[in-house]
Amino acid sequence: MTTLRKRIPALAALVLLLLTAVAAVLPLRASEPRPASAPVGDFSAARAVARLDNIARVPHPAGSAAQSDVREYLLGELRELGLRPEVQARVAPSDSDDTPAVVGSVSNIHATIPGSRPTGRVLLVAHYDSVPIAPGAADDGANVAAILEIARALMTGPQLRNDLEILFTDGEEQGLLGARAFVDAEADTHRAADPRRTVVVNLEGRGPSGPVVMFQTAGTGLVPAVRASGALTTSFSDAIYDQLPNDTDLTAFEEAGMRGLDFAFINGAGHYHTSHDDIARLDRASVQDMGEAALAAVRRLGGADLSRSGTNATYFSLFGTVVSYPAWLVPPLAAVTLLGVALLLWFGPRRGLSPRGAARAAATFPLTLIGAVVAGSAGWWVLSLA
Ligand SMILES: [Zn+2]
Known about the structure:
- The chain has 386 residues and is an alpha/beta fold.
- Helices cover 44% and strands 19% of the residues.
- It contains eleven helices and ten strands.
- A hairpin with a 2-residue loop joins strand 9 and strand 10 (321-326).
- The protein starts with a helix and ends with a helix.
């Protein structure tokens, strides 16, 4: 009886821990896809996916005949929405450090929905080329289709305060050629006087499924838009991504001084850049999740004062929302944590805490991280044997 009573706090702690873990993981599910009959102001995955037959039925790499068919389709759809799209044809270099330089001629597609009292512009971007062997349903056809659906939904509602520019880039797979061409063209015309007044919303597909993740930001003051999007996020992933050689179009815009957010669905990455990246394997729930997130972020940014770029912040998803605090709070918070540990070690032994036990518990944290990396790498190695 006494032992049981002694264990009650431990059991309660365990139950609390499990409930917290479940609550943290619950929002990791992608949204329920909405049917074509969804209200006109909402994003419908069914309406977006219906367009994919014209975008991602076959591989459509930069410069191919299949890609020029896709381009004609996209121009037609933008005109159908009442916009006046333009093709931006230009030669651009890949400008990459670690791969041989590539120079290519690209044809970006660009259209503007004017704002009522613009303080800046929101640049909504997806690339409309695929790699040569993939139909590119997830990378990046679904997101091109999503942008058409987002533009349609926005045009049924009130005019946004800021300009919204739609950009379908070409030659992303060859080294962000289209994004670099867009930046170069603006530099030539001195168009972007203050590049921080442009906020890019870039949509990518790294696999055919999974919830939408906001994995990279450029610049500051964007946490409210991330929170509005409901996407999973952490500024920690930003720090990791900065160290990786992977690039998206956002890299080119960031180098030009623009701010921005990078959204992607990333599950099932084994299909990425293979013939398996097709319409049948694309998860409609991921399309819905991405569409809702991007539409909400665009609505938020579209109404914001983009002349104010805010301060640097630390942020992360927790229980379905985004917690954030200014970056200057990080050192004091770290100091408080260290102080807490020191106090624990000071008072702990009087209540039965053994220094060796505390050291063992502290060691489990890095061991978990290392263990996860080892298990992941070993799993990948086993998969690549097949
Ligand atoms: Zn891509």
